[in-house]
């Protein structure tokens, strides 16, 4: 794929060189600049040099800039180059051949340091019971069992004792001293052709390649024994290719525009791989052997599977068609229609023997139909009506999982775990969306208008778990000029949302028998050993809905601009937004206020001063729930 | 079976404050010399507060009482405490020897102060940049 980029760069350079004869034209200008640029970084470069302005690290580099513009007898060319060392470069070409052929081409490359999670804040564990020194129980001094009545630690399980659950969390960065760096390259070409014999039609074509290459941090986790979280590096070699073609036609009052886009995304670096930890009890007394499979039935894979891919970025393809039409009518009226159809295919590779998927690829499709009409009512009112119907459809994924040690324990309702478990994953994306809106602009006076608008949107999701969301938005905006030196804009908006997208039953256990937020007599008969199964006994009994999307939103904006003289102007703006929801057993509120001011002053004909200040304050109130569990 | 489990909840606050300030000055010293200066400063804080979970009175399980404390959970708000300050000062200018020939230069000082380090470690950093060039218009 690298050769494709080289080929395209060579082609672009050839295009850059092709118009050189124009350099002899009379209307010819340009500039060239050369020099040296340097950078010195102290301490971390991850923020002050995240996007490498001059170069990625300390040192001095040569730079050069060039710009050439030439126009002669219907031929025009604009060339630009900005080279900052070997990595950070920009090139541009604009070409106009008798207005028949127009080309815009550009190439840019730059580097970026990416974040490195230190992973040194993740360590926690309940120590092994064999390390218990007796005396008072603390989180760092834990016996294997405790007497349920006295709380005294005991060495082994008895009828009156309870086993203490073990847990561990361990973060380990395998690339502690490495930095992660990505080089971005972007090549864009836009071509338009208007044939003189068919002047009402313009043909368009475009080609774009975007590449990301380098290494990013990749974080993975083994479960069982402990939650062992590890940080490694993942090679990145991503390429996105866009090919577009279309046309714009003007036939009297009718304007039609069509564009086709074909996009291909590929990750060429191969998948990162890791060996997972053995599935063992988190005890120093449990050693690994291939036959020691106490917890195998709880996992799909572990150490015995060897290297497995993780942190996989799937290849994908996209196709879209966009058709727009506009009819200009008398009385400054117009009707606009649009149709958009898009399909994205994501290619997933399953792991036979661990999990498989019936579908070879996952497909998301979008169809949108829009209609808008605008007209003038009298001299002062302009009315716009709009509507859109959208259909989004996402594949269901039919998965089959193959647990390890499938006959090890009868832990799902008393039966023997089957050799495979089938599951269907529904997507929340699949939905029908209806949008309706109306705008009325009333001209109060010269340069003064009042705009009133109303919008309705309905998201009807196929997945009943998330249901239907309805949003009503009303807005009023005033624009006026009270005097020659003062102008102002002000608006208020209210939005009412019924059933915003939320996570139903996301938190807050409620005992179905007592209605209390706890139980000491689990109602679920499904158990591992002598304790309740966390999923069915705890998670399935949660009743608190959570969302950070509002049911009620209020927003106000105001802006003043004052220009009392030719050498001074000032502006002030303020935006305040209040949002809240009150769902089943939870409340969420957010208040945002953004005031700002700017001043411009020309102290003399030779001195300009500009000052700007912005403040953004946001306070959020949300419910936090912590589950607690002994077992 | 002695396991005991449940949920404890609290209403918590999360506050964000961001101040951004910029000053720019352009000075045509003479027909040959133009100078400019830009100063940017920003201060951003974020804080999670008012998480106060307490062990409910109905917790009777001996293991829960002795080995787990919800009070220990409350300190996690410290992990969400963020405070960044940034300063960006840039001065530069262009001197024209003739309408066609000119020299240009820029110097920049950039400071990032990470006052409450987050998961990416201490991101404190200072950058000094500059360039000196000569150009020709035709």
Secondary structure layout:
The complex is a heterodimer of chains A (631) and B (138).
Chain A: H1 2-17, E1 27-43, E2 59-72, E3 75-84, E4 88-97, E5 101-114, E6 124-125, E7 145-147, E8 153-154, E9 161-163, E10 168-173, E11 180-194, E12 201-222, E13 227-251, E14 254-267, E15 272-275, E16 307-310, E17 315-329, E18 333-347, E19 355-357, E20 361-377, E21 381-394, E22 397-401, E23 421-425, E24 431-445, E25 448-461, E26 468-480, E27 486-498, E28 503-509, E29 518-519, E30 527-528, E31 531-532, H2 534-537, E32 542-546, E33 552-565, E34 568-583, E35 586-604, E36 607-629
Parallel strand pairs in A: 10-13
Antiparallel strand pairs in A: 1-2, 2-3, 3-4, 4-5, 5-11, 6-10, 7-8, 7-9, 11-12, 12-13, 13-14, 14-17, 15-16, 17-18, 18-20, 19-22, 20-21, 21-24, 22-23, 24-25, 25-26, 26-27, 27-33, 28-32, 30-31, 33-34, 34-35, 35-36
Chain B: E1 5-28, E2 33-49, H1 62-67, H2 70-74, E3 82-96, E4 101-114, E5 125-137
Antiparallel strand pairs in B: 1-2, 2-3, 3-4, 4-5
Please, could you describe this protein's structure?
The complex is a heterodimer of chains A (631) and B (138). Chain A has helices at 2-17, 534-537; strands at 27-43, 59-72, 75-84, 88-97, 101-114, 124-125, 145-147, 153-154, 161-163, 168-173, 180-194, 201-222, 227-251, 254-267, 272-275, 307-310, 315-329, 333-347, 355-357, 361-377, 381-394, 397-401, 421-425, 431-445, 448-461, 468-480, 486-498, 503-509, 518-519, 527-528, 531-532, 542-546, 552-565, 568-583, 586-604, 607-629. With 631 residues, chain A is mainly beta. Chain A has a 23-stranded mixed beta sheet that branches. Chain A has a 3-stranded antiparallel beta sheet with strand order 8-7-9, with no helix packed on it. In chain A, 15% of the residues are buried. Chain B has 138 residues and is mostly beta strands. In chain B, a hairpin with a 4-residue loop joins β1 (5-28) and β2 (33-49). The model of chain B has no long low-confidence stretch (mean pLDDT 92). The interface between A and B is large, with 91 and 73 residues. β1 of chain A pairs antiparallel with β5 of chain B.
